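User: I'm new to structure prediction. If I give you an amino acid sequence, what do you actually give back? Let's try with this one:
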Amino acid sequence: MVSAPHRVDLALRGSAVLDQGVVPDALLLITAGTIIWAGPAAHAPAHRAEQSRTHEGLILPGLVDLHCHGGGGASFPDSPTAQEMLTAVHEHRLHGTTSIVASLVTADAATLRARVGELAALYDQDEIAAIHLEGPFLSVERRGAQNPEHITAGDPDLVRELAQIAGGALATMTVAPETEHAEAVIHALAEVGAVPSLGHTDSSSREMSEAIALATSQLRREDGRSPRPTATHLFNGMRPIHHRDPGPAFAALDAAASGDLVVEVIADGVHLDARTVAHVFAVAADDAVVLVTDAMGAAGMPDGQYRLGALDVTVSGGVATLTGGESIAGGTAHLLDVVRHAVLEAGVDLVRAVRAASVVPATVLGLQDTIGSLAPGRRADAVLVGTDLHVVEVLRAGQVVSA
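Assistant: Good question. You get back a string of structure tokens that encode the predicted 3D arrangement of the chain. For your 403 residues, that looks like this:
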């Protein structure tokens, strides 16, 4: 007896980046916003599609940004309501980031409580994938664009309180290993199901290695989102490397080489030289690098004056710096721009770069069975790009994303 063909909502055909690599003639079968089959078109099961489409460029999985402060003129740390924050979500979604982690910056406890509460509402509505807290337990010396007035010693009780307000949305938090009570903060983060992200640090190499080991042991004991901690934007916001004082970056890169740490890399052509990006990918183990934007409200916007938390930011030539200073104040790129720069300028393998912006961050979030790849059972998120890796169209849960 011959079984009836599968009825599907959309059959999308074209070259695609699947789990096994680039498949030149792939077919995605999508029903009710979920991928039910993905693979070579010649091997596809019999089906009847309500809509069939062929894309002439390349089909990528929906991108996942693990570290983003805003875009489209809106900033997560500065928008008082969830509705205003949606402007940033939609800006990045239109450009291929179908899952975004909303990042806050150092602020007083009351402001953090309020912003986490608004973001929790967006999390409940499936508008954001999670929340990232960048501070306030950071190094004043390596604060970058963080307000020094609100940088404090570690407070594990505040971590637990913010996690409770977040209602399961708190995924990562940046902490400097040398901060007073940093160990207690790392314990608390693992306890509430969040991943410690080590960064904005003036620590020694030894202090960084010890913090990585502690975070790893705690995450594995708690069996949370991920068994591996992360490093917040490797090299940026860290004591520079010196041959007699290697500092935290080498320790982080060593841990990434052994696969024990996932390092964030802002490959936007501003934060890091392309050769640095290439070196990180050459040294790190597979799936130990995640590409991020660290984008602030100016992403997708013209040059001008902006805010990031309590600080004024000037954007000139697409580069955001603290007004009157030289510190880089976040990025202005979309994640697809970062992927394109990594591939075309740094020479990173296309598949590896795409994975670093999709399945790897999804795994850090513990959501690899839901987002981050074009595979059966995943939400039907896809980015249709041209051969130049510029966006043509974006699908989220099988639906075209429109302005």
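You can read the tokens as a compact description of the fold. Here is one thing that stands out. The first strand starts at residue 6 and ends at 18.
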